[in-house]
Write a structure and sequence with these properties.
The protein is an alpha+beta fold and 129 residues long. The protein has a single domain, classed as GIY-YIG endonuclease. The chain is built from seven helices and three strands, in the order αββααβαααα. Strands 2-1-3 form a three-stranded antiparallel β-sheet, sandwiched between helices. The longest helix has 12 residues. The chain is globular.
């Protein structure tokens, strides 16, 4: 299957690059996922050990949607390579007060214990999360 065929198959899916922080706005974390609501639920509920749990990064301050996973992963890597000032400028371009853009999501969202977690684990195993 060629690259254009793969892109056709994932056209109906959304992929997300997102940035998290805590109340002090330091540090920031940049991630990639195919299920933004579920991934944020995992971060906010500290489901997995790691950087976001260690630094209490539970505030979603930025996100962008991509139609193709390879483009989203490239964008995640690009942002991760930026300086703190450049990341802050990106966040402030759409969220000047650094509000938690997912503050109300937890009240409406119930985690899926099915295939989405398996997909996250597969992406994580490849090192993309």
């Amino acid at each position: 299957m060629g690259k254009s065929e793969r892109r056709t198959l994932v056209l109906l899916m959304a992929f997300w690059v997102y940035m998290m922080t805590n109340a002090s706005r330091h540090p920031t974390y940049t991630g990639f996922t195919g299920d933004l609501q579920e991934r944020l639920w995992q971060h906010k509920n500290k489901i997995e050990e790691g950087y976001t749990k260690k630094y209490n990064l539970v505030r979603l301050v930025y996100f962008e949607e991509h139609s193709y996973p390879d483009i989203g992963i490239d964008r995640e890597k690009e942002i991760k390579g930026w300086s703190r000032a450049k990341k802050s400028a990106l966040i402030e371009s759409v969220n000047p007060k650094w509000d938690d853009l997912a503050r109300e999501w937890g009240k409406q969202y119930k985690p899926n214990q099915g295939p989405s977690l398996a997909r996250h684990s597969a992406v994580k195993a490849r090192g993309a999360v």
